[in-house]
Amino acid sequence: MSQLFTELIPSLPEDIALECLTRLHFSAHRVGSQVCNRWRELLQSKEFYYHRKQAGQTRKMACLVQSLPSPTESTRTKPAGQPSYGVSVFDPVFMSWDRVDPVPKYPDGIPLFCQLASSEGKLVLMGGWDPVSWEPVKDVFMYEFTTGRWTQRKDMPSSRSFFAVGAKDGKVYVAGGHDESKNALKSAWVYDICGDEWSELSPMSEERDECQGVIIGNEFWVVSGYETDGQGEFKSNAEAFDMETSEWRRVEEAWMASQCPRSCVGVGKNGGFMCWAECDSAVRVGACGVSLGDCSLVTGSEYQGAPQAFFLVNGQIGKLLKIEVPSDFSSFVQSGCCVEI
Contact 317/310 with Cβ under 8 angstroms? Predict the structure, then answer.
């Protein structure tokens, strides 16, 4: 790392130059990476990310798979009523909203039901259905906030939809879901973001379709789900993968039986799982919660067809505080993750 931190700014001592770049707001990294090769290598490096994090210069934001505003009739390329999705970014400090540029391969909308995960400041988008053919895809894309660009990465080993996902220390864990024939899966894989490589993990004890992934400490939890022959019969148990021992353990009564966990699993005050859809009637339909450290962003609606509402919740389970959202970002949120930039 020391080689990256030399002669960053002419005539300035190394430590002062590094401190200047450490305090540079992440929104300026895109321009900063164009100054010179040394700056670009530094700003994109894992070492610099952790240096900024240790210095308290990173910020947690929510990245959301959100339906896009309906195009006008003159520009519409899809049948009316078929939504397109993009990636929205919410900053809880400035209460600001932005939208990530489209994935080049999917300029009119990202794959339906794709999953987002993030680690070390990188955003990874994977899986889902082709927005035109509705066929399952194995695509993996990474968004680099320092350049504002998407790059296509190594495909998932196989097509899977509605799977659990979680990320930590530069790795993305996936498990469960179903294949292109709608067979529920119990297999699991881990993706190394830096190495752009997939490695197979030991399988879970049982199939879990439409499960939800949660990272707690050094464990990747796969909550609920159902088997191929029990479609819609959501389990009350969960399985946790220990990242150090590479072993699974099964936990009974971890979730409410028959309750779909997709996008609405939260961690309560006692460390157990809770359902965001049950915390307030205002988000009982289509609830989605994203933990942002000291607070959580929770979205949903009161009933089917009702306007989408957006709330901030302080602490693990506090009072829902409604926030105003620009009209371009007030639509349905399918899923999301926290990104620390």
Answer: no
Per the structure, the complete domain to which residue 42 belongs is given by 2-54
Least confident of 123-132, 224-233, 316-325: 316-325
Q: Which residues 6+ apart lie within 8 Å of 134 measured at CB? A: 112
pTM > 0.85: yes
236 and 185, same domain (yes or no): yes
Does residue 234 fall inside a structural domain?
Answer: yes
> What strands lie across the sheet with 197-201, from one edge to the other?
164-168, 171-175, 188-192, 197-201
Q: Are residues 173 and 250 in the same domain?
A: yes
> The domain spanning residue 253 has which CATH number?
2.120.10.80
Tell me: the pLDDT tens digits for 49-76? 999 999 999 999 999 999 998 765 444 4
CA distances from 126 to 31, 83, 231 (A): 27, 19, 24
Residue 161, domain member (yes or no) = yes
Share of the chain above pLDDT 90, in %: 78
